[in-house]
Design a protein that fits this description.
The complex is a heterodimer of chains A (585) and B (122). Chain A is an alpha+beta fold. Chain A is 65% helix and 10% strand. In chain A, strand 1 and strand 2 form a beta hairpin. The chains are: A alpha+beta (585), B alpha/beta (122).
């Protein structure tokens, strides 16, 4: 809207208001008294709507709210027609008497979008305008002007004034219809409030509250008027005054809503100060949520390498589709996508606020984006390490299985064949042959034992078949130094946890036997909140090097499933190796 | 009279060698089965005195076969065998209801008789 048009509209409203006031002064006590008094309030309503409307119009030209507010303001200059006192003005006045309320109802129905977005809103607008002038015309034709508060008006152009048998009924019906429309409008306002998300409620609140009070007052007034043929003047005028006063508050409520938005933008300054501090990933998101008044705000970062958005922890994030109740504001850095804010679609009402917040937090967001990128890479490395370990474990199981099904079976068959040969009568009678067969059987037994030991080292079959408890018991049973299992979980755990726990126990036991000169070892595996704690303690010499290749490998293996390894080995006091292994997914 | 015996193993080569070895070791081998379910069916049909069962079978494992055959502590004597060692299976051997375990490499008629003669091996 051009400043010239704005000025012209302001002048028209000003002039119309002044004319109204002049008319009220001129008529004084002689004219229709209540109207003359109320006109001051009516002019106040007119001016306040025009002023607030022009402000809204210049701020958001694309939103029709401002234009509608100006229209309401100008429509409220019409009641002065009644005081001009000519047949033409009386006719116009009586025909347009409900127009100000109709335009106001339009504004309230479509606020703050400025246009009807739901079916109910459209139905309301049609019903609202379709009945405004026709209803007034029916009243003009069938109702005594006295009943319309126009007892002292000159005759209208149609010359229909005068008592009419259905006059009171028509007025009562007309009032009832307005009650129905106001009820529908109240329903629209309340529904929109209930459905509005937090950010929109903030700007909607002052206006919606005023609208509810206004509509309730209006409904009470019209109901009383249609129920009682003549209201006591103090109630009639009092209700009019209450409605007009509330009406003057409407533009004020609108300005409060605007001010809130301005305040929100000034809160961006506070954000800038806060951003000076060090940020943890979640806190930046919290700060943005606070400034934007949207607790659901999610900040996601663009990773060019992956061509995908990730969250602060580096996990991939799917953006919501367009048109839903979640909206996305993409934040750019030197023209390239850097991040995106996923927020309530209602924040689309305040794009400047979102952009201001984004611009202020640009450096912090870029910093967080780089951190998210590193976290994503770290996550990738961890996943890849876990995959390598899992692949290694699977491969070892396969090799063990192959040894068992292949070479081991053949050696077993060979051993049985030797047994059969030894049981033959010819062999039994030949001492040399028996000795040779016995020797071959012994060699074979040794080869099988070695092969079994090798297979077991590659993968203990008891672990996958019977679980950690039996596997640890078997490990202790075969240990060259006395070993006791003091605790083991009775149930099965995820395979990677069982294998890592067994690996730790097996390596620790081997170390105790090889390096520690221990005489006794205890093994315990206990469930804890997070998962499993495996502890192997010996009474040996202590002084183990936690950074030596053996223990380092053990720590790596434990870390591969996000576990933690601790080695305590004070000289002369034995060695304690503790592994905490998480069981979660 | 020679005790009757059923051999359960999925390797035909092992079954044939075990049949020869145990026949010459004083047993009458009345049948063979290649998996756990066939073992249960054959046992009901043939009613052998002893069932020699490999731990690792293609369907149900040897422990399961032993517990099915030894339900309510009746039925034939069950001897588990494997090319692995007894310690590779922990307490599962004793819990299964089998009379004991003989590694395949030590299998002989004498070994089975010794096992059954001494009662259950822990």
């Amino acid at each position: 809207m051009s400043p010239r048009l704005r000025l012209a509209l302001a002048l028209v409203a000003l002039a119309a208001g002044l004319v109204n006031l002049a008319l009220a002064l001129r008529v004084g006590d002689a004219g229709p008294r209540p109207l003359a008094y109320l006109l001051v309030a009516i002019v106040g309503v007119s001016w306040s709507f025009v002023a607030a409307g022009l402000l809204a119009w210049s701020r958001r030209p694309e939103n029709r709210t401002g234009a509608l507010m100006v229209a309401v303001g100008l429509a409220f200059a019409l009641p002065g027609l009644r005081l001009i006192g000519t047949p033409l003005s009386t006719t116009l006045d009586l025909l347009l008497v409900t127009l100000p309320a109709a335009v106001l109802a339009h504004l309230i129905a479509v606020f703050p979008d400025g246009r009807a977005t739901t079916r109910l809103q459209r139905v309301f607008l049609v019903a609202n305008y379709a009945t405004t002038v026709p209803l007034a015309l029916v009243q003009l034709l069938l109702v005594d002007p006295g009943l319309l508060g126009c007892a002292e008006c000159p005759d209208d152009l149609l010359g229909t004034g005068g008592p009419h048998p259905y006059g009171e009924a028509v007025v009562a019906l007309s009032n009832l219809w307005q009650v129905v429309l106001a009820g529908l409008l109240l329903w629209i306002v309340v529904t929109r409030w209930r459905q509005a998300a937090l950010p929109r409620r903030r700007s909607l609140a002052p206006v919606a509250q005023v609208a509810v009070v206004l509509l309730v007052l209006f409904i009470v007034r019209q109901t009383l008027r249609s129920a009682m043929s003549s209201l006591p003047p103090w109630i009639d005028v009092g209700l009019d005054l209450a409605v007009l006063t509330t009406l003057m508050l409407w533009p004020l409520g609108f300005l409060v809503g605007l001010a809130r938005t301005r305040l929100d933008r000034s809160a961006v300054g506070d954000l800038a100060i806060e951003l000076d501090q060090a940020w943890s990933p979640g806190r930046l998101e919290q700060a943005l949520a606070r400034v934007l008044h949207d607790p659901t705000v999610q900040l996601v970062y663009w990773l060019p390498d992956r061509q995908a958005f990730v969250d602060a922890a580096g996990r991939p994030v799917e953006l919501p589709p367009e048109g839903g109740d979640r909206a996305v504001t993409v934040l750019r850095h030197d023209g390239d996508t850097a991040a995106a804010l996923v927020h309530d679609a209602a924040l689309g009402d305040e794009p400047e606020l979102v952009q201001a917040v984004a611009a202020t937090a640009r450096l912090a967001i870029e910093n967080q984006r780089l951190q998210a990128e590193v976290r994503a890479q770290l996550e990738e490395v961890r996943a890849s390490r876990a995959r390598i370990v899992a692949f290694g474990d699977a491969e070892r199981r396969r090799v063990e299985r192959n040894l068992h099904d292949g070479a081991q079976q053949r050696l077993v068959n060979l051993s049985l064949t030797l047994g059969i040969a030894r049981s033959q009568p010819a062999a039994a009678s030949d001492g040399e042959l028996t000795a040779a067969l016995d020797e071959a059987a012994d060699e074979l037994r040794l080869a099988l034992a070695e092969l079994r030991e090798l297979a077991r080292g590659i993968h203990p079959v008891i672990l996958s078949e019977a679980g950690l408890g039996p596997a640890l018991a078997a490990l202790a049973e075969r240990s060259p130094i006395p070993a006791t299992v003091v605790a083991a979980p009775p149930d099965r755990l995820p395979a990677r946890v069982e294998e890592t726990a067994y690996y730790v126990a097996s390596e620790a036991l081997a170390n105790a036997a090889k390096h520690a000169q221990a005489t006794a070892v205890t093994i315990s595996a206990r469930r804890c909140d997070r998962g499993l704690v495996v502890e192997i303690g010996d009474d040996g010499a202590g002084g183990a090097d936690a950074n030596g290749s053996g223990l380092r490998g053990l720590a790596d293996r434990v870390a591969a499933i996000d576990g933690r390894l601790e080695v305590r080995s004070p000289a002369g006091e034995g060695t304690w190796i503790t592994a905490e292994l998480p069981c979660g997914s | 009279m020679r005790p009757t015996l059923l051999i359960v193993d999925d390797h035909a080569g092992f079954r044939s060698l075990a049949r020869r070895l145990l026949t010459s070791g004083g047993f009458e081998v009345v049948g063979e089965a290649a998996d756990g379910h066939a073992a249960v069916t054959a046992t009901r049909r043939l009613r052998p005195d002893v069932v020699l069962v490999d731990v690792q079978l293609p369907d149900i494992d040897g422990f399961e076969v032993a517990s099915r055959l030894r339900e309510n502590s009746v039925g034939p004597a069950v001897v588990l065998t494997s090319s692995r060692e007894r310690t590779d299976y922990g307490e599962r051997v004793s819990r299964s209801g089998a009379h004991g375990f003989i590694p395949k490499v030590e299998l002989s008629g004498a070994a089975i008789r010794a096992l059954l003669g001494s009662g259950r091996m822990g």
